[in-house]
Amino acid sequence: MNARSAIGTGEAITFPDQGDPGFGVYVHWPFCAAKCPYCDFNSHVRHQAIDQPRFAEAFRREVAHMRGLSGPRTVTSIFLGGGTPSLMDPATVGAIMDAVAGAWHVPDGIEVTMEANPSSVEAERFRGYRAAGVNRLSLGVQALNDRDLKFLGRLHDVADALKAIRLAREIFPRMSFDLIYARPGQTVEAWTSELEEAISYAVDHLSLYQLTIEEGTPFYGLHKAGKLVVPDGDQSAALYEATQAVTELNGMPAYEVSNHARPGAESRHNLTYWRYGDYAGIGPGAHGRLTREGHKFATATEKLPERWLEMVEAQNNGLIESAELDHDEQADELLLMGLRLREGLDLVRWQQLSGRDLDPMRERFLLDEGFLERLGNSRLRCTPAGMLVLDAVVADLAC
Ligand SMILES: C[S@@+](CC[C@H](N)C(=O)[O-])C[C@H]1O[C@@H](n2cnc3c(N)ncnc32)[C@H](O)[C@@H]1O
Ligand code: SF4
């Protein structure tokens, strides 16, 4: 099957699910130059300089600790996320890469992604990250008009974003960028033309997120007070449908709810999450999933950077949680992740974990209503209509 004919079928993923979801390493850099008013990620603004060598040493120690928990593994991807990892010195990134390579087997050429903000872009730093081993950049562009970038509280303008995209394309073999849509007052026409423009700058991957109003953020307060009005359900659905249509037409269909790629350019790291593989979570507020002798553990680390640092210096890790997941919990997580993917949920694996079949009545109902579809005997996925109400579909099917 050639790549074009596979568009829309979900069958063209380069890394087809062959039962091994891989082992990823996630490293969290928890600092940003400013806090965006919509963001509830673990990101902090500090007005004094960050002691990066001290953080690098703490990352090294926590990597070694996680290696102790995971046992020997072959790493299939590394992801430096945040926060704003592009505020790290290239030497800090190099130290992290060395620590990971010293702990696990890291084959040449695996996907190594770093998130970057267009406002913290300098060619020299980009070249430094590339030299440290980063081979995929994920840029937080968010919007392609200055008014909306200002509304989103971003420090960059469109000119900065385009410069960053140009530079990333020049320096990194792979790159993606993020946009946030379903902004207040956004029409389908305006979004369609912005998305078409974005696709013209894209290489082979885009992350397109609907603006979510997260509790505890400044946008949440404004929204509650009626001062920030986001698109209603119908308008959000229309924007989502336009997103699917424009990206499919341009050869970048969704392979997950918000992630789009040309066939073969899917993020290996993200696929590991959604295929429910293991990943080590390193750094403040990082989550992980590690399997040891058949037991799967959920790990989480202290979120506050300075407290995490002190914990690691005292005991080699900042873990605040390491809980074994029973089989029902694992089956729930697999379901939640698998239904996000266009390739769908691996039903055999779900049955092995849960020790039973999905509730046949509930599944039948969701199939008949057009929210789910079967892919052969062994996979189940959301239809486009199901994707629009994914949370409800998952809640209906879960244990
Ligand atoms: C943790 S951020 C890291 C990237 C980088 N710090 C940046 O913002 O450019 C990852 C992405 O999540 C998305 N995001 C964060 N909060 C969001 C929200 N409330 N609604 C929609 N998308 C959001 C943004 O597109 C952002 O680029
Ligand atoms: S730059 Fe990214 S991580 Fe930092 S506050 Fe903004 S959206 Fe959140």
How many strands appear in the DSSP assignment?
15
**Bound chemical compounds:** S-adenosylmethionine, iron/sulfur cluster
Mean pLDDT: 94
Distance between the termini: 37 Å
Overall geometry: globular
Helix/sheet category: alpha/beta
* Cα-atom radius of gyration: 21 Å
How would you describe this protein?
- With 399 residues, this protein is α/β, with parallel strands linked by helices.
- Helix content is 41%, strand content 20%.
- It is built from 16 helices and 15 strands.
- Strands 7-8-6-5-4-3-2-1-9 form a 9-stranded mixed beta sheet, sandwiched between helices. It has a 3-stranded antiparallel beta sheet with strand order 10-11-12.
- Helix 2 links the parallel strand 1 (23-29) and strand 2 (77-82).
- Helix 7 (188-201) runs parallel beside helix 9 (233-249).
- The longest helix is centred in the N-terminal third of the chain and has 19 residues, at 52-70.
- S-adenosylmethionine is lined by residues 38-39, 41, 82, 84, 115, 117, 140, 142, 178, 180, 209, 211-212, 214.
Features:
399 residues; alpha/beta; 3-stranded antiparallel beta sheet; disordered N terminus; binds S-adenosylmethionine; binds iron/sulfur cluster
Summarize the structure.
Helix content is 41%, strand content 20%.
What is the topology?
Layout: H1 3-6, E1 23-29, H2 52-70, E2 77-82, H3 90-103, E3 111-116, H4 123-132, E4 136-142, H5 146-151, H6 158-171, E5 174-181, H7 188-201, E6 205-210, H8 218-224, H9 233-249, E7 254-256, E8 259-261, H10 268-274, E9 278-282, E10 287-292, E11 295-301, H11 305-315, E12 319-325, H12 327-338, E13 345-346, H13 347-354, H14 360-368, E14 372-375, E15 379-382, H15 384-388, H16 390-397
Parallel strand pairs: 1-2, 1-9, 2-3, 3-4, 4-5, 5-6
Antiparallel strand pairs: 6-8, 7-8, 10-11, 11-12, 13-15, 14-15
Helix pairs in contact: 2-3, 3-4, 7-9, 12-13
